[in-house]
Write a structure and sequence with these properties.
This protein is α/β, with parallel strands linked by helices. 51% of the residues lie in helices and 14% in strands.
Length: 215
């Protein structure tokens, strides 16, 4: 099955280069393009691709805000961001926005195709040049969190890892061969033990545990 892709970047030269990369892969299908955040949102809503490759720095809506909107409005679409920014603050914001891939523009020619395949396959991709920043992008664990982590069962940890990676309860149940209700129960018990309230907090915790870098 061909992977349906939308591209969004406000620089024509970059967009042309991305188009060429996508076109060189026989199993990729470019179904839409955009040069601004709002236009990208409209195209994504309309085309509902498997993955959207978006620039972080775009007019009208930047890539982070766009990712949040897509997560709310078209959650089936996985977002991969392209960026010039190697600062861990951008990486943290991207994680919290639900982004599944983070690729530096300077290495896109070598890594973008691989990143798309990883994300479409259900994984999480961070450019190797900054992957080490994942563990620096979160605060140190408190003594309470250290203790709570020891109380997680293997199954609770497995479920929380998949939740952090963006899988739905139904998808988690299928991957772990448990019922949806059981997946929901493991998730609820896990976040309660860790004292986590939001998905952003869970992503930070997962990053801190190294769950997002060992895929």
């Amino acid at each position: 099955m061909r992977t349906r892709i939308v591209l969004a970047d406000d620089h024509p030269i970059v967009l042309n280069g991305l188009r060429s990369l996508i076109g060189s892969e026989s199993d990729f299908d470019l179904v839409g393009e955009a040069s601004s955040g709002l236009e990208a949102l409209r195209v994504i809503r309309n085309k509902r691709p498997d993955i959207a490759v978006v620039d972080i720095s775009m007019p009208e809506l930047n890539g982070i805000v766009l990712s949040r909107r897509v997560a709310d409005e078209v959650p089936s679409v996985r977002i991969l961001v392209l960026t010039l920014h190697e600062d861990r603050a951008y990486l943290r914001q991207a994680l919290e926005a639900g982004v599944r891939g983070y690729v530096l523009k300077r290495g896109a020619a070598e890594s973008l195709v691989e990143a798309i395949r990883v994300v479409v396959g259900g994984g999480f991709y961070v450019d190797p040049a900054i992957a080490g920043n994942l563990n620096k992008a979160v605060p140190r664990r408190s003594a309470r969190e250290e203790g709570a982590a020891l109380d997680l069962t293997v199954r609770e940890a497995e479920v929380l890892k998949l939740v952090a990676l963006g899988y739905t309860n139904k998808e988690i149940a299928g991957r772990l061969d448990v019922s949806v209700k059981s997946a929901e129960t493991y998730k609820a018990r896990g976040v309660e033990k860790l004292g986590l309230k939001t998905r952003a907090e869970l992503v930070r915790y997962a990053s801190m545990q190294g769950w997002l870098t060992n895929i």
